[in-house]
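Lecture 7 notes: from sequence to structure.
We start with the chain below.
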Amino acid sequence: MMRYHKEAISRPVLCKSHNIVLIVRRFTLLLASAITLLGSGNGHAQAADAPPNPPSAAQSTLEADRGSTTTEALERFTHDYWQQRVTEHAQRLNWHGYELQIEVSIPTAANKLTPCRQAYQPEANASALPVGQQRLRLRCPDKPGWTVIARSQIAVVMPVVIARVALEPDNYVQQGDLLLAPILLTAQHGDVLTAPEQAVGRRPQRALRPGQPIRNRMLEAALLVHKGSKVRLEMSTGEMSISMQGTALQDGQKGETISVRNERSGKIISAQVTGMNVLRLHGDPAPASLPQH
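Predicted structure tokens for the same chain:
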């Protein structure tokens, strides 16, 4: 059994990678076929502006499955379970414009089982990103009860941030280095970026090739201080706190010590980045030597 869900999506800039385009085209054809089946009454498909909130496992009751075979009830429950898992993950990470396909396989022997009078009790592996091949153990708590293993193939296509050009570790990422393109998510894409601003101003940990989806762990921490920006310098001694204005002479991430020019005295001092355009001085603000470039 295959069911599909499509969230409202604004047209992204397409990736130039041939493989990604083929994957998205194949997925679109599958989705169109499912919607056609829905119109003819011979299949199951869903289309909505936003992902619905599917019923939880506890809401699968005998009333909902009355008149269904055990296999049909298990297929429906498994589909709704994984749709809920993906929806929760999407809401937590603020996903937008994703398309979801779920294919469920139930052992044929399940039709010989006695219909369960109570809600199924699902047990699944704790997967960070519920995509690809997934197993779901469904237990009927009746006495006597039974257990069935439901196998599912879950596909999510979503526009993500990819590198438009080759990105080197020595350079900060710029808006023009990026574009949005739809890809088929895998289990390794749990921290993939979905908006260019999540990457702009950060440096790659290693070289990235054109067309490569960008994950959060591939980039250094975001810059909190930019060279030339006005910053606030703070120093605390006992119960006394001092605050003064300065100008950053270097870029800085959280925890880094950079050189700053004191606006009042004109001296160049060292301070540690603690927040957005906020730095902490330690003891006497000693002069700093600017790095040679």
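Points to note: The helical segments are 18-40, 70-93. The chain is about 15% helix and 30% strand.
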